[in-house]
Request: fold
Amino acid sequence: MLVEPKPTGTPSENKPTTPALAVWVRDLAISLLVSAFIIVFLYQPVKVEGTSMEPELNDQERIFINKFVYRLGEIQRGDIVVFHYPRDPAKSYIKRVIALPGDRVRIAAGRVYVNDELLSEPYVPAEYEDQSFYPETTIPMHCFFLLGDHRSSSNDSRDFGPVEERFIYGKAVFGYWPMDKVGKLR
Reply:
């Protein structure tokens, strides 16, 4: 004969606990909502098209851009930014910030000078350098001088001039595909 044990607690203590599956589904739903909020409103996944930012960013690489970082802080020299192409705002480009508003920039035989000092550019390998010239220009207020890291195959501020701040809408922060390039961008 089997005897069921008698409940020892109050009726509210004897209710069955929420099944583990329901808790897992609830936690998953909350995680998905938070993730969706972050991706939609803070970070945007983008695909790099072209070779102008090699070797840092390759053609078809997937990255996240932070869309709100410049609402909280300033654009810095060296940042990799995504912006609307000034000649066709329907297109987006990705380049590196070389000179800030008020800076004087010039390029002589492919060497970049900012405020008469040679810019150290460890992100531009020798095989991606070029021998271009660009006359000394003072960057207007609210504008930035942007160059691709693959200088010999980049359409950048050498062609279309300084880019107005209003065209810049994100900072490239993290690569997520391919797997061997997962991580924070330098």
